[in-house]
Amino acid sequence: MTGPAGLYVHVPFCLTRCGYCDFNTYEGLDHLRSPYVEALATEARLAAPGWRGVAFASVFFGGGTPTTLPPADLVKLLDHLRGAFDVVDGAEVTVEANPDTVDERSLAAIRAGGVTRLSIGAQSFDPDVLRALERIHGPPSVRAAFIAARAVGFDALNVDLIYGAHGETLASWRRTLEEALALEPDHVSAYALTVEPATPLGWKVAAGLVPAPDPDLQADMYETACGAFAAAGFEHYEVSNWAVPGRRSVRGTWRRSTPAGSPQGERSGWGRRRGASNASSSACGWPTGCRPDGSMPPSPNACWPAGWRSGEPAGSPSPIVACSWRTTWSSPWPADRWLAVDGLDC
Fold first, then answer.
1. Structural domain that includes position 140
2. Among residues 120, 173, 125, 177, which one has the least CA distance to residue 146?
3. pTM
4. pLDDT for the residue 300
5. Who has the most CB within 10 Å: 4, 143, 205, 251?
């Protein structure tokens, strides 16, 4: 492999699970945050020997919502990763944030702890569109998060947007673009809403309760975004990513390097080995189901990503009795090194 590596750390906890989301995320499991952080630290220690001699130019905490973790836990985890891996001086360290989970105090703590870049999930500045997406924050929260981030010294800020939700018009999207640019972000990611079948949105579309996104309208929205960002001086360096000159995300170069992953639900690679390890046996401790009270969730994929267990039909529900964080090694993708961290082993 040539070029630097990138480290992705998945934090699966969320305040609520949005209806369109098919990521490996959970709500109502805050009691597992500390055990999960400990499992991540153990997983990093177990994986690190296979990455000796590899320099990491970026660390990306994604989710889920990493900022549902206490700031001290995020900083402690980052310190542990720096100790386990060769994270270069000046590495880009990004944390994704829901605007309702941060304030000036929490942002100051993670900034002082080494986080260099914040990615704020705005999605839209239209309250009706946010409701259609089942987002619980409002536009004022996004503005407040940006103000707080700048106040504590973040000079690299990304805003995430989604276009094509039910009821969104081209005029509404234009207003969202204007509001986003008014915050003066350094980077913008804008994604077309896609309907995944094993999600509440997918079920609603299949049942005819809401229409699927209009691809022609989404194409118009994309072209509108391209024009607005170009006029604001942004470079369009990937399909869904725009940056102020000099502010491209290091994570955006992963297609030319090798991402390493930490549980849950993330994959990365090294060589052609295959094996398994348990980082924290019985870390979950649910008696009969995915929720603390033992009940099963309303959707089949609310406990783990569809089809994560070999031989299990995609989306099939199973009760969780005892769990551990599982790591497996498999064939290389996309480069010559591939470490797969699959999540819960129950």
1. 5-259
2. 120
3. 0.77
4. 34
5. 251
